[in-house]
Amino acid sequence: MDKKFGRGTMIEKWIRDIKATCAPDQLGMILVHNGIVRGTAKDGKSVQGMVLSYDEGLLEQTLDKFRNMEGIVAVRAWINRGELQIGDDIMYVLVAGRFRTDVLPVFQDLIRTIKSEIVKEEER
Question: CB atoms < 10 A from the CB of 25, how many?
Fold first, then answer.
């Protein structure tokens, strides 16, 4: 998928599909993360945009690992690539599961793993 894809529609479809296929006694929370290109770097310096790439195979392996965690019923991710401008979407990550105590730690760990091990960002 490229950055022109209607991601709002994609997220809505993910949620509809999860609600339709997951056992209702196992689905109590769905969290969605939308990472966006900021106009400033973490160090406060101005950013004009970024070049983004990622390892597709490693992403799939990682998603499979997180899908098999206790209390988790669905994990999805979409990552943009190429030259991105300020305001462009970097990624969407979704984690669905039974309880907040199951979903929140997995959600945070998955985003951290994607950012630190799967995605390569070069700010311009």
Answer: 7
